[in-house]
Specification:
The chain is α/β, with parallel strands linked by helices and 270 residues long. 41% of the residues lie in helices and 13% in strands.
């Protein structure tokens, strides 16, 4: 079965050889790699985006490069333009940390991301950083994205521990689009843990029942170039759980690869 790991972070020192060795060891076909975290780092983000773009360029398509951006950085639009027009970055990652997803700088950045027709991946749920940071990442905060109907986005970690809230947001957006006659899925569920093993079966079961396998995709929160035991264990765990939940082989295959490919490439414009 083809596997695309749609959610990974990297060290600044990552080389393409390390990334490809990691992929071969995990058995995954491709991996999404986010550039280094930009929040509070200002202009350092440019070099981080250039780094992951260079790794991807040499990877023969196996590393999928996403720019991790901080909407509050004054030069962020310039960084994004360079990333798309010169570096072949194919998506954007955002983690709200000290600001809300609906704050004005964020809304202005969403407009540009929509213009470039890029997919946008959000962190949602508990945020493992110092202080009371998780409040910025509550799934309901992302309802503001409904104002950008051509911008497709995903909510990571199934919003854990706010799984029900995450799925409610996805369901609300889907139903609102249906009522308005708007085609295409705008909001996807990134099933990267987040969810500890004790909660994971229940979270996947709820997602399958309420929003369906069609908008769910696989990720590990792994570290290409580093440990391979964790990502392999996440893949094996999800295979067992999906089989136990009687998910068809076709839907399992979509969960592990095709759904993310659709999220990556299927435009909501026009």
């Amino acid at each position: 079965m083809r596997i695309i790991d749609a959610h990974c972070h990297v060290a600044r020192s990552l080389t393409v050889d390390q990334a490809l060795k990691w992929l071969d060891s995990t058995g995954f076909e491709k991996v999404v790699c986010f550039s280094q975290g930009p929040n509070g780092k200002g202009a350092e983000v440019r070099q981080s985006v250039r780094h992951i773009a260079e790794v991807a360029r040499k990877s023969d398509g196996r590393v999928i490069p996403f720019a991790w951006l901080d909407p509050t950085y004054k030069q962020v639009k310039s960084v994004l333009r360079e990333a798309v027009e010169k570096l072949d970055i194919v998506g954007v990652k955002i983690i709200p940390d000290g600001w809300m997803p609906y704050d004005p700088p964020c809304m202005r950045l969403y407009e540009q991301i929509a213009e470039f027709d890029l997919p946008l991946m959000f962190h949602s749920g508990i945020l493992w950083s110092y202080g009371d940071t998780s409040r910025f990442c509550r799934p309901a905060n992302y309802e503001c994205l409904m104002q950008f109907p051509t911008l497709r986005f995903s909510l990571a970690h199934i919003g854990w521990p706010w799984v029900d809230e995450c799925l409610a947001v996805v369901g609300k957006i889907r139903e609102t689009r249906r009522r308005r006659g708007v085609q295409g899925e705008q909001c996807y569920v990134d099933c990267t843990p987040g969810t500890p093993p004790l909660w994971r079966r229940d979270a996947l079961k709820k997602a399958l029942y309420y929003v369906s396998a069609d908008v769910m995709f696989f990720g590990t929160d792994g570290r290409p170039g580093g440990d391979t035991k964790w990502p392999r264990s996440v893949a094996q765990q999800d295979k067992r759980l999906l089989a136990a939940l009687k998910v068809s082989r076709a839907s399992q295959a979509a969960y592990f690869a095709a759904n993310f490919e659709r999220f990556l490439t299927q435009s909501l414009k026009g």
